[in-house]
TrEMBL record:
<keyword id="KW-0961">Cell wall biogenesis/degradation</keyword>
<protein>
    <recommendedName>
        <fullName>UDP-arabinopyranose mutase</fullName>
        <ecNumber>5.4.99.30</ecNumber>
    </recommendedName>
</protein>
<dbReference type="GO" id="GO:0071669">
    <property type="term" value="P:plant-type cell wall organization or biogenesis"/>
</dbReference>
<dbReference type="GO" id="GO:0033356">
    <property type="term" value="P:UDP-L-arabinose metabolic process"/>
</dbReference>
<dbReference type="GO" id="GO:0005829">
    <property type="term" value="C:cytosol"/>
</dbReference>
<dbReference type="InterPro" id="IPR037595">
    <property type="entry name" value="RGP_fam"/>
</dbReference>
<dbReference type="GO" id="GO:0052691">
    <property type="term" value="F:UDP-arabinopyranose mutase activity"/>
</dbReference>
<dbReference type="GO" id="GO:0071555">
    <property type="term" value="P:cell wall organization"/>
</dbReference>
<keyword id="KW-0333">Golgi apparatus</keyword>
<feature type="glycosylation site" description="N-linked (Glc...) arginine">
    <location>
        <position position="145"/>
    </location>
</feature>
<dbReference type="Pfam" id="PF03214">
    <property type="entry name" value="RGP"/>
</dbReference>
<comment type="similarity">
    <text>Belongs to the RGP family.</text>
</comment>
<feature type="site" description="Required for activity">
    <location>
        <position position="152"/>
    </location>
</feature>
<dbReference type="InterPro" id="IPR004901">
    <property type="entry name" value="RGP"/>
</dbReference>
<comment type="function">
    <text>Probable UDP-L-arabinose mutase involved in the biosynthesis of cell wall non-cellulosic polysaccharides.</text>
</comment>
<feature type="site" description="Required for activity">
    <location>
        <position position="145"/>
    </location>
</feature>
<dbReference type="GO" id="GO:0005794">
    <property type="term" value="C:Golgi apparatus"/>
</dbReference>
């Protein structure tokens, strides 16, 4: 089994469950180092299957390591995974949820997600001009006629966003059952959701399973945001790691399950500013669990409203030319968030503080290499 970059990539797994899912991944993951971020009760013992090389961090470890900055790492939300990004010493990160398993391609071959993500990260991105044959660097593809030769070199790739067979990453209103939807409408009134949410017949899809395998990888165009899901995600820590903060979610926060979305919006505007790319598409994982849409809606509810203002904020912001590295961009972005979103809710000022504390924590654990 191929294990490319085994010494340059860490696998980060947030968990409140057990890690038996690793048995199915063993052929692909065993050569790699795992960073397990145990959420919830730190006294609970998490069993890691034999034979894996790993480090495990619980809440007590996060408090011990980060001290007065630990508050910026979420508790009781998968957002805690970003602590693993911070403590890693490797160039690449792959993060996966513990209810994601090995998917099969149309030929029935098990998919080696790391092999595909690494191919995505090691080949250039093309955000400035869309290639209609998708990723031109894949076997059997190329740039199509009319694609400017001056743009064919592409730019470095910072993130590789994989997808999911079976349970798609839908939001709660889309995932809810009809009866649940009726109950929610009754509980919260007929105007419970922003006008932008289509009528329920277009939404409630509790039984919808993604069975469509699309054999494509594409670059997200410059200036376009995308809903980055943390379930099956790889990135280059050197190019974008310092912006992969998954925000303030979970216990004590007014919002949850917008952790990866927040990181996706922040990283995309910074990638566009710094001239690095984001890809989405292959590889697929098999997502096995649908979390409870009722619980999810309670966590997502404010986000469903707020994102109608957050998205235009990110679409219209410009980072200054003096921000020439990820940390500078992220600190500038934190102040833009404070000014530009603070009117929505005091949460955003606290989130801006969290973004600053994240960079302080990042610098604490990733000091610049001593100049040779
Ligand atoms: O409080 C928590 C809850 C969960 N986790 C770990 O996070 C991973 C995702 O959890 P789960 O599979 O239950 O949630 P989903 O609805 O499928 O996840 C999607 O939405 C939330 C996130 O954005 C996630 O990335 C999305 O895929 C899993 O490993 C849990 O063990 C946690 O650490 N703390
Ligand atoms: Mn899941």
């Amino acid at each position: 089994m191929s294990a490319p970059l085994a010494d340059q990539l860490d696998i980060v797994i947030p968990t409140i469950r057990n890690l038996d899912f690793l048995e199915e991944w063993r052929p692909f993951f065993q050569p790699y180092h795992l960073i397990i971020v145990q959420d919830g009760d730190p006294t609970k013992k998490i069993h890691v299957p034999e034979g894996f090389d790993y480090e495990l961090y619980n809440r007590n470890d996060i408090e011990r390591i980060l001290g007065d900055k630990a508050w910026a790492i979420s508790f009781k939300d998968s957002a805690c995974r970003c602590f693993g990004f911070m403590v890693s010493k490797k160039k690449y990160i792959y993060t996966i949820d513990d209810d994601c398993f090995v998917a099969k391609d149309p030929s029935g071959k098990p998919i080696n997600v790391l092999e595909q993500h690494i191919k995505n990260l090691l080949t250039p991105s093309t955000p400035f001009f869309f290639n209609t044959l998708y990723d031109p660097y894949r076997e059997g593809a190329d740039f199509v006629r009319g694609y400017p030769f001056s743009l064919r070199e592409g730019i470095p790739t910072a993130t590789s966003h994989g997808l999911w067979m079976n349970i798609p990453d839908y939001d709660a209103p889309t995932q809810a059952r009809m009866d649940e939807w009726d109950c929610l409408q009754t509980c919260w009134g007929p105007h419970a959701f922003p006008h932008s949410i289509p009528a329920r017949q277009h939404m409630v899809k509790p039984r919808e399973r993604n069975q469509r395998y699309v054999d494509a990888v594409m670059t997200v165009p410059k200036g376009t945001l995308y809903p980055m899901c943390g379930m099956n995600l790889a990135f280059d820590r050197d190019l974008i790691g310092a912006a992969m903060y998954f925000g303030l979610m979970g216990e004590g926060q007014p919002i949850g399950r917008y952790d990866d979305m927040w990181a996706g919006w922040c990283t995309k505007v910074i990638c566009d500013h710094l001239g690095v790319g984001c890809k989405t598409g292959l590889p697929y994982v098999w997502h096995s669990k649908a979390s409870n849409p009722f619980v999810n809606l309670r966590k997502e509810y404010k986000g469903i409203f707020w994102q109608e203002e957050i998205i235009p904020f990110f679409q219209n912001l410009t980072l200054s030319k003096t921000s020439t590295n990820v940390e500078q961009c992220y600190l500038e972005l934190a102040e833009l968030v404070r000014k530009g979103l603070g009117h929505i809710d005091p949460y955003f000022s606290k989130l801006a503080d969290g973004m600053v504390a994240w960079i302080e924590g990042w610098r604490l654990l990733n000091p610049p290499a001593a100049s040779a």
